[in-house]
TrEMBL record:
<dbReference type="InterPro" id="IPR011990">
    <property type="entry name" value="TPR-like_helical_dom_sf"/>
</dbReference>
<dbReference type="Pfam" id="PF00856">
    <property type="entry name" value="SET"/>
</dbReference>
<feature type="transmembrane region" description="Helical">
    <location>
        <begin position="7"/>
        <end position="37"/>
    </location>
</feature>
<protein>
    <submittedName>
        <fullName>SET domain-containing protein 5</fullName>
    </submittedName>
</protein>
<dbReference type="InterPro" id="IPR053185">
    <property type="entry name" value="SET_domain_protein"/>
</dbReference>
<feature type="domain" description="SET">
    <location>
        <begin position="164"/>
        <end position="308"/>
    </location>
</feature>
<dbReference type="InterPro" id="IPR046341">
    <property type="entry name" value="SET_dom_sf"/>
</dbReference>
<dbReference type="InterPro" id="IPR001214">
    <property type="entry name" value="SET_dom"/>
</dbReference>
<keyword id="KW-0812">Transmembrane</keyword>
<keyword id="KW-1133">Transmembrane helix</keyword>
<keyword id="KW-0472">Membrane</keyword>
Amino acid sequence: MTSLVPLYILIAYSIVVMVFNMKGAVNFGLFSGAYALNQNKLNQIPQQALLQDACPSDSILRDGECHLATTAPSEVTFKSNITTTLDEARLTASQQPNFPWTFWPECFSNEETPDPYCLFSDQSFANGRGIFIVTTEPLAYGMLQKQAFKNPESLDRSNHHANPPFVEHDFPIKGRGLVANKTLFRGDQIFASTPLLIADPDAYKLAESERIDLLYRGVSTLPKASQDLFWGLLGHFKGDAVDDRINTNNFEVFIDNISQAALFPEIAMLNHDCRPNAAYFFDEETLTHYVHAMRTIQPGEEITISYIDSEKTRAHRMRRLERNWGFKCDCSACTAHPALTAESDARLDQIQQLLEKLNDWSEESTASPEMAEALVSLYDQERLWAYQATAYKHAAEAYSAVGNRFMAIKYARLSAEFSILDKGFSDGDVKEMKKMASAPEKTWSWNKRVGIKKGGCGCGKAH
Ligand SMILES: *[C@@H]1O[C@H](CO)[C@@H](O)[C@H](O)[C@H]1NC(C)=O
Ligand SMILES: *[C@@H]1O[C@H](CO)[C@@H](O)[C@H](O)[C@H]1NC(C)=O
Ligand SMILES: *[C@@H]1O[C@H](CO)[C@@H](O)[C@H](O)[C@H]1NC(C)=O
């Protein structure tokens, strides 16, 4: 599972020196120094003629060279510290053939930032939902290579928010949440949303005022409906209004292996439960955040996700939620009688011990299918449906390791399905478990623990 992480935590370890300087007028990248521009001069530049003559229609001119419109330019071309109005930025962008963004990017930089951080905004993204991205040019152009931008059909399942299977409900203490209004079965899609914004945690290297400036400007570049969604979000930290909404509601996602904060306003409506009935994952190609039911959810039941790693003991979970999210955990796994929460903690400890043993593939391993069965049962007892893919995977491998074909298949099938819902359809575990489900004897674990001298009893072996 990915987790919901406040932006300030992501940057906690890269606290940066803020450098405050006067903004200087510098050259606009496109003209590579030929024209010194200031705020009001954009309209007077003969851009159209210059560009149309210079490059074929699928390319744009940057630093005197033609680049394919959607390939990352070899060097930074958007220059920093120029502030234009949105209208001017829109006009400039519209005058470039095949320019991928709706507004000419505004950027800031300083000694701490090898690449400037810019605002990239595309109002037509995801069928007019729009998106803005605050990051460096190479990373933004990397995102342009994703299916979400290149192939709008890849978003067929995204952003269908009409007629949802839930209603908004106001709970006495914890506030609003979503309650199912029809029966949901495991695997039913609850949400599939593209982000309104993606913000690079490293943009904290900018002066605070510049970073905030990019975020405000970003929100104002979104289509009206998306702006309303953004401002409708609740915050809970103090400080700037845009920052607070982002910090409170963002999800950490990885795009091209880089951690980014992404905001999916619909999903922010789901409350936390340590024993959630839904799970989520982020699909990098479609830039879509999916939420699916992990078990049958009855009408009237609240739909929940876990904001944290809920395989941790109660005290640990309570601390984490209080610190990162500012609330006291009031889900049943936190508020049960001490005798019961002690049992729960004991199960969680035992889960960790079993995982360690099952992960041991050495000659001395004592791992057995019985151990894996106990693990699966403990996840069940703990109601950790959203995490069960792991237990099933261990069971599949433990049976495969003693050559029990059909039990390996049984658990591989379960693991594949749960992994799709919890880790995403292109996750490595999904591929591995699908392979095992069709041919266990062709996987690395097959018969791996047959004939181990110590420990392994081979009792799960097929007869
Ligand atoms: C932009 O302004 C910052 C201070 O806000 C300064 O440190 C940086 O050098 C400027 N960048 C350029 C390219 O002028
Ligand atoms: C559930 O509620 C939503 C509004 O949130 C509504 O659009 C939908 O039709 C309802 N579905 C059912 C089955 O009542
Ligand atoms: C991400 O980085 C890790 C190492 O840091 C590397 O092994 C892996 O291949 C990278 N993944 C992608 C998709 O680039």
